[in-house]
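Duplicate of earlier report; Peptidoglycan DD-metalloendopeptidase family protein input re-posted below.
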Amino acid sequence: MTEVQKRLIQLRTALNSAKKGAETFAAKHPRALTASVVGTLSCFAVTAFGIAPNAPDAAALPKRTIVETLAAPDIEAQLDELSAYSIGLTRSEATRSSDTPDSLLRRAGAFDPAAAAFLRSEPAARRIFQGRAGRLVHVTADSSGKVQKIVARFPAEKSEQQGSHFTRLSIERDGSQFTARTETVPLQTQIALGSGSIRSSLFAATDDAKIPDSIASQMADMFSGDIDFHRELRKGDRFSVVYETLTADGEPVSWDGGAGRLLAGEFTNNGKTYSAVYFKDSATGKASFYGFDGQSKRRSFLASPMEFSRVTSGFAMRFHPIHKTWRQHNGTDYGAPTGTAVRTVGDGVVDIAGWQNGFGNVVHVRHSGDRTTVYAHLSKIDVKKGQRIEQGQRIGAVGATGWATGPHLHFEFRVGGRHMDPRIIAKASEAVTLPGYAKAQFQQTVASIKTQLAVAETMDGVTAAE
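Output:
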């Protein structure tokens, strides 16, 4: 045995002994080990450098192979567990006027005669197929088509909750039986933006932009003192709006009143731009539309006794459809379906509420300044003589009573007994002013709304919710 080999055996024995000592030390003193690692490694590097020239060929050193067997997952057990899990698929379907429980479930991918029978027999469930079509119904069924759950939403039943709440109907399977539960839940609001341009009419433009009709009507009211929407609209006029939409469980409300309040609008008519914002006085609780300059858009008299409708006969000479002679028409006729709400154009007291010759069912309202408004041919009267009413309050509904060839509202404005053009009176009437203490709060509202309107203006023909 050579001297070199003897030295290698001694070195290997020393290293093994050092390794065992290090493992024992590490177990007893883990923190001290960290401090000594750097010094140990540096010394080892020097030592390795010193003996490297005398070390044998690395290929001659012993080698060790480690083989580790990994446990394979139990695929069969996983498949058994997966097959035991019932997958429920939920699908939303809009009701149709011709729907039956079977046809609705079939479109939703559910084939369940028991569920269909329950929908036919349960009074609460039958509401799904009553009223207007287009109501969203969510059906959850398992892989075999058996219904597990049905959820539908409706307007709140109580009149005082309509517009602020909705009714949720939940039908759930429990074995072979079904249970139905209804609950009244508050609606949530979202902010929506939209814009469009006039090509033929206001409602055609808002339909193209997917803006609800109720918002279009509010916009017509907002700018009624600036623009005559019956006569002054021009092709190419543009508008932008910021408004509230109502949601039920995060979904847009599909029934009437699904849109909330118009918050702000901008309308460019014949090259001139008008802007307005909805502002509520926190002190009095009263709200109105105001221009960005703080001037109220609300005047003592509204331009129209209806939210928005078609003028069939203006304040001018006309050929009378019943008497067949040319006569001065001392009012404005608005064509609208029977039952359409009629509102008072200003604050006042009811002077007459009943039947009056050719006017049929008629309401006379006395206002300040010796002014009177007349609402004729009503199908229904909702106020009484002597009752004090506020601007915008419903007083009746459109009809065809008295001398009328079809359903419409005949509206008159009288000053000191003389007939005046209602539109001229509305534009000339005094504006409601913004209280001085509310101006700071108003300016903050305007600053916020201007940013939203700027975004809405870029969205020609589309709407978006925030």
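Residues 25-53, 310-328 have pLDDT under 50 and may be disordered.

Merging into the original ticket.
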